[in-house]
Design brief:
Chain lengths: 201, 201
């Protein structure tokens, strides 16, 4: 293979190309056959890389798919900031709905979550690599809203995130459909009311 | 076997005894070995019933364990009604925390939820036999609170239930520990504030 500059590709570039091919192959196979039928062998064959290469970077297929989902979630979604926290949280929760429902990422994310229940290492990775960094962006956006007076300074941000994300995971856990946009709007409005209304003593 | 009245046990009584022995054996094996290692064979052996008897009543081990958990949840928990809806919801959510954490029922319920992600029939059964009837009791209690003026007449009860249950299923899905009683109290207080505070137009 000849690169555009005419020189041979660098090892780093070759390695990045193998990495991307592996992530794409894993997502495709998961969408086509379901998480349970994905194997490292099949990923390697479709990506045109060796199994050894895959195992050098990832311990399990769950770890491959987690990286694939994480990259898509991060690259496809700049965290929204329109200046209206309610609107931005609706957009953000809508993206989580899309992650569950997506034909590309949904089977992978739902498969990862089924594996998390049996695999502590993957559970830690999902929290550390995907969920906690995303939640950090929610906190950052919410702190901005606090500075602008859209949320009270003492609002319980971790609880707010649990109340926003929780209903989606509840529905997922019980095999129920995700909420529609109108329902997401009502959910966000309720959580915002909970944060904004004064505590009864 | 001789019953206290001296007559032979009726088929109905024998059958009820086998049913109970099966449910107890299933819960014990799940707590001892984990959901993944429970088999119908092992349940039958411990309960002293035939595999055929078990398959006559239940299609899968998940269905056996669902019946076992449902009976314990129903029998162990009269729905609370102290007259204070906030207190009663705290108690109710505390019971759901206990279901996840219990050494007897926790492994069974968490195992059932892992199976639900792969088994639509079990997903329907969990909703129809356990979750929906429990939620109906929450609605009933909340409607009582509406009549007593503790909740507004137009409160969105289904959303309230999702906001209360959601954080527990979110934590479960990501392998995180259940909330402690103080956190449950804060959660209930927030949901109640969301329901009670007026909508901004």
């Amino acid at each position: 293979m000849i690169t555009s500059s005419g020189s041979a590709p660098s090892p780093r570039r070759r390695s990045e190309k193998s990495r991307r091919a592996t992530l794409t192959a894993a997502l495709e196979l998961c969408a086509e056959n379901g998480y349970g039928k994905v194997t490292i062998e099949a990923i390697a064959a479709r990506a045109g890389v060796s199994k050894k290469t895959i195992y050098r970077w990832w311990p399990t297929k769950g770890a491959v798919l987690l990286d694939a989902v994480t990259e898509l979630v991060v690259s496809h979604s700049e965290f929204p900031d329109t200046g209206d926290i309610d609107v931005d949280l609706r957009t953000h929760i809508g993206m989580l709905v899309n992650l569950f429902n997506s034909t590309v990422m949904g089977p992978a994310y739902r498969g990862i979550l089924s594996q998390v229940l049996h695999d502590e290492q993957l559970a830690r990775a999902v929290n550390d690599e995907l969920v906690i960094p995303r939640v950090a962006l929610v906190y950052e956006r919410m702190r901005g809203a606090q500075e602008q007076g859209q949320l009270p300074p003492d609002a319980d941000l971790p609880l707010a995130v649990e109340m926003l994300y929780g209903p989606l995971y509840y529905r997922h856990a019980l095999g129920r459909p995700m909420p529609d946009p109108e329902h997401v709007e009502t959910l966000v409005a309720h959580v915002m009311r909970a944060l904004r209304s004064p505590e009864r003593s």
